Amino acid sequence: MLICDNLTKRYGNQERNAVDGLSLEVRWGEIFGFLGPNGAGKSTTIKMITGLLACDSGSVTLEGQSLSKDPVAYKRMIGYVPDDPVFYERMTGFEHLSFIADLYQIDKNTREERIGELSKLLLLEEALNSQISSYSHGMKQKLSIISALLPSPRLLILDEPMVGLDPKAAYILKTLLIDFAKKGNTVFFSTHVLEVAQELCTSLGIITQGKLLYNGTFKDLQSENNKTDETLEALFLELTDHDGKEL
Ligand SMILES: Nc1ncnc2c1ncn2[C@@H]1O[C@H](COP(=O)(O)OP(=O)(O)O)[C@@H](O)[C@H]1O
Ligand SMILES: [Mg+2]
Question: Which DSSP letter does residue 240 get?
């Protein structure tokens, strides 16, 4: 289980906290969708969960491993797909993946098998020997997803992964996330694509101005608002309508 307890972050030049006392729990096997308007604090939260950004206060643990106390053991369990992946563009896709496999000390047979399997699944096999500089945004996104999955993480964290994917790639990714969670792993992803969140997520978090407005299932969100026929989009727009005003 992933436990975020009272996570708080303020950037030096800002008047309010970008993330403000955020607590949530995500169990194994869940697909957790993290929703919120632009600037709500999604990426900041995700960076704190991945350990890329230190929190001002609060803590993160995964399966009892504390990010602050044992960062290596914690990070071994997670894979991260950032919103704007950065690569050494002069490497080929294959060289990049080999580099990741070296970092994680993945043995030769396992890496060959997993690179083959994942690149086939994401339809990137034929491009693996081309330089990353020749890749489209969608291809880079796919490479980033393969990189995150290569070390067999138990928690996959993705920041707006649907951006730039064509319909087929988006479909493949959705299927991949469902299969990944079915094996007892956890997916934590942020998205603006509310239809995807409604369809895929077993649990949702809605954040505005750094604070968690809602945490639970889509069904409970509907019933708590006495609107069992409403789409997630309609409920989201109603809930976040106060954005910019004091809540
Ligand atoms: N590196 C940064 N320096 C200063 N302020 C930042 C930085 N990154 C994000 N912010 C601010 O923190 C708030 C939350 O941003 P972010 O976490 O990126 O939101 P989201 O991912 O939900 O769009 C915003 O007000 C944003 O302007
Ligand atoms: Mg963001």
Answer: G
